[in-house]
């Protein structure tokens, strides 16, 4: 990565969209699974899912992340055709309405189909490690988020351990970002994500948020997904649907340390919090 990349204006190219990340961006979560950890089943119906996506855009989301396979700890895999049946109608409807769409998937077949249907970004918690995944994105102009995950969702929370969590996660992401760029995906299409909650204990998650400047220094824009996660329940004792305040605190702590995109359930509240934070940052 050239030195100039560390100081360059952070822009992210995702298909027909170019995001100016000098303002932190908000990615609204739309899980269309019967069993997601925080909104299980609520948007498993097309009309309801579309209405929720439109509401998130009205509330200020910059992009909607659609997921048809749960990545919660212990989740079971979903077949390609089932995942496509869940996400494709939404991608088609939202993309044709001019809404920027990301799809949270680990499967190259799904990546190719959703990009053809208009998705502007692929959000891969597996960092494009599946055979064919790099090529599926490289043959398009979509953006990509590559995330760190230790193990697989089914087993990732079974005693995760690190010698130096920050260095190990950073090295993994730099290696994967370089492999992504070498496959022909321009660097300004790549976002990295330390994978809060993915094969990490509470102390690991907190260290990663605190060390976000280390990830920013790689030159790639950083995304964080802390919304409603179980570690926030560990800290506050709150149930999953009572973690708004905790999510806002962790999200703002991430942005204050350089995260440029937040993946959230509560778009309206996050956008308000970011407006206040940004105004304070700009004040004389
Ligand atoms: C799909 N998904 C769930 N949590 C996530 C996180 O923290 N980051 C990204 N990129 N995707 C996530």
- Sheet of most strands: 8 strands, parallel
Strand composition percent: 15-25%
- Work out the helix count: 11
Bound molecules: 9-methylguanine
Radius of gyration: 17 Å
Arithmetic mean pLDDT: 93
- Provide the spatial order of strands within the biggest beta sheet: 8-7-6-5-4-3-10-9
- Sketch the topology as an H/E string, one letter per element: HEEEHEHEHEHEHEHHEHHEH
Distance between the termini: 34 Å
Number of strands: 10
* SS-derived structural category: alpha/beta
Residue stretches low in confidence (pLDDT < 50, at least 5 long) are 1-8
Percent of residues in helices comes to 40-55%
Silhouette? globular
Give the secondary structure arrangement, pairings included.
Blueprint: H1 3-7, E1 11-14, E2 17-20, E3 25-31, H2 46-58, E4 63-67, H3 80-96, E5 101-104, H4 108-116, E6 121-124, H5 133-138, E7 143-147, H6 165-182, E8 190-193, H7 202-210, H8 212-216, E9 223-224, H9 230-236, H10 244-256, E10 261-264, H11 267-282
Helix pairs in contact: 2-3, 3-4, 10-11
The structure holds 9-methylguanine (9MG).
Residues 67, 71, 104, 123, 125, 145, 147, 193, 195-196, 223, 225, 263 line the site of 9-methylguanine.
Description of the molecule:
The chain starts with a helix and ends with a helix. Helix 2 crosses helix 3 and helix 10 packs parallel to helix 11. Strand 6, helix 5 and strand 7 form a beta-alpha-beta unit. The strands form two sheets. An eight-stranded parallel sheet has the order 8-7-6-5-4-3-10-9. Strands 1-2 form a two-stranded antiparallel ribbon. The protein has eleven helices and ten strands. The chain is of the alpha/beta class and 284 residues long. 9-methylguanine binds next to strand 7.
């Amino acid at each position: 990565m050239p030195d100039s990349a560390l100081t360059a204006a952070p822009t992210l190219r995702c298909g027909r969209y170019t995001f100016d990340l000098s303002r932190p961006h908000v990615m609204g979560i739309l899980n269309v699974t019967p069993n997601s950890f925080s909104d299980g089943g609520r948007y498993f119906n097309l009309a309801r899912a579309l209405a929720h996506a439109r509401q998130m855009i009205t509330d200020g989301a910059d992009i909607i992340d659609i997921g048809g396979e749960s990545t919660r700890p212990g989740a079971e895999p979903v077949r390609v055709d089932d995942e496509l049946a869940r996400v494709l109608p939404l991608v088609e409807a939202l993309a044709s309405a001019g809404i920027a769409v990301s799809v949270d998937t680990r499967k190259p077949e799904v990546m190719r189909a959703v990009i053809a249907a208009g998705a502007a970004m692929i959000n891969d918690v597996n960092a494009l490690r599946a055979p064919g995944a790099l090529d599926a994105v490289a043959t398009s102009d979509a953006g990509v988020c590559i995330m760190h995950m230790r193990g697989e969702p089914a087993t990732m929370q079974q005693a995760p351990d690190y010698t130096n969590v920050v260095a190990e996660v950073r090295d993994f992401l730099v290696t994967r970002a370089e492999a992504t760029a070498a496959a022909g995906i321009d660097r300004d299409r790549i976002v990295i994500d330390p994978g809060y909650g993915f094969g990490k204990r509470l102390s690991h998650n907190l260290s990663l948020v605190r060390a976000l400047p280390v990830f920013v220094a790689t030159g790639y824009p950083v995304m964080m997904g802390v919304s409603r996660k179980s570690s926030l329940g560990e800290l506050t004792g709150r149930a999953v649907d009572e973690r708004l305040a905790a999510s806002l605190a962790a999200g703002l702590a991430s942005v204050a340390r350089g995260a440029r995109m937040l993946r959230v359930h509560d778009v309206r509240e996050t956008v308000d919090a970011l407006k206040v934070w940004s105004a304070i940052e700009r004040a004389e």
